[in-house]
Amino acid sequence: MALVQVFNLMMPLLVYPYLIRVLGDTLYGKIVFAQTVATYFSIFINFGFNVSGAKDVAIHRDNAYKIKEIVSSILIIKIAFWFLSLFVLILGLLLFNVKGNDFWLYVFSFFICLNEVLFPQWFFQGIEKMKYITIINFCLKVLFFVLIFVFVTGNEDFLLVPLLNSVGVFTGGMISLYVIFQKEKVMFGFPSFNIIRTHLKDNINLFISDVVISVKDRFNILFVGIFLGMDMVAIYDLGIKILLLVMLPISILNNALYPKMAIEKDKKLLSKIMKYSFIFYILVTTVLEFLVPQIVYFLGGDNLMNAVTPTRIFLLSAVVYSLGFPLAHNGLLVFNKYKLLLIGMVLTTLFYLFCILIGYTFSLLENVSIFAIITVLVYTFEFIYRYIVCKRENIVVNRTF
């Protein structure tokens, strides 16, 4: 999974300099905005099955009949939700009078949602054969990388970016389904309506959780596009891409230690994770703050040098994240405090919306740096909540640092 995460973050950064120079910041911003809209449909189509599906497959992996029921139910639900989402998208585009190339940009970007339908990562996680995910993901990312350089040669080719991405997603999905039904010998059937309804009912809480998380994590791009324009979306996107890459090590470390923590529930180990992660990110962030101008220039050129200040602000989030993420992943989750974790997500989302409301009311949402500051404040609020709760529940030892 670590390799998959690295591929997913590195490939867009490798393509980024070329697309910015060929398409320009405004067109690239439009693409990012359309893809962000598509991600909200992805959340609905997924409906939490990436989590519950993996768990159910892992539990019943030796029961062929049950695996058939799980796989068939999830695929049928996702296909139905995909077509429903496509209908809603087209209806929305018509209502908002979106025409011409912009219309097709949103439609082609939506086809990326086929990844949620056709690429059953949850199945491969459940049977613990992650090599399939790694190989398919790597090959498709490389293919997309090559096709972009071959076919996207001017700003008139901007529709090819989501289209080529969608073709890659479809190809990967078909290969994945072939592996499931041919190599893994999983049968497909049509489960009863009651079985499908049970799967939907069981996943309501996971779906709500995903929706809550997506508000604070993804709404910023929509707000930046609405309030500041598509060229500013490109600036925001660059800062976020750099931040996500910087935060990746802490995610990989905590995911690697999660099985050990789940078994041993070692509070001292949690404290060590937080302590050394904090020290590491203080050092890394300090170095990167000086290198940001060079990084931004390399990735975006002269047109995106306005991204320097927002990126420097974004990087402060990594320091706070190095403390907050372990508290959630190897703290609250390990000690089965799911309700407290969900409450924290809701409160953090409300705090984020409050910050946006204050910014809008007092006309503060005038540049990307303000949204970067809001991001830092949200991560800080999230950490404070988790730390207070973990102290109260005696999850963290008295001397964490």
Q: Can you characterise this structure?
A:
With 401 residues, the chain is mainly alpha-helical. The chain folds into 2 domains: 2-202, no CATH class; 214-392, no CATH class. 83% of the residues lie in helices and 0% in strands. It has 16 helices and no strands. Helix 3 packs antiparallel against helix 4. The radius of gyration is 22 Å and the shape is globular. 39% of the residues are buried. The mean pLDDT is 89. Its main location: membrane. It is found in: Cell membrane. Pfam families: Polysacc_synt. The chain crosses the membrane at residues 27-49, 70-97, 103-120, 132-152, 158-181, 242-258, 278-299, 311-328, 340-362, 368-389. This is Putative Polysaccharide biosynthesis protein.
Low-confidence stretches: none
Could you tell me the mean pLDDT? Answer: 89
Helix content: over 70%
Tell me the overall shape: globular
Structural class, please? Answer: mainly alpha
Number of DSSP-assigned strands: 0
Topology as a string of helices (H) and strands (E)? HHHHHHHHHHHHHHHH
Q: Largest sheet at a glance?
A: none
Strand content: under 5%
Cα separation of the termini: 30 Å
Domain count: the total is: 2
* Secondary structure tally, helices: 16
Radius of gyration: 22 Å
Subcellular location: Cell membrane
Pfam families: Polysacc_synt
Transmembrane segments: 27-49, 70-97, 103-120, 132-152, 158-181, 242-258, 278-299, 311-328, 340-362, 368-389
Membrane topology: Multi-pass membrane protein
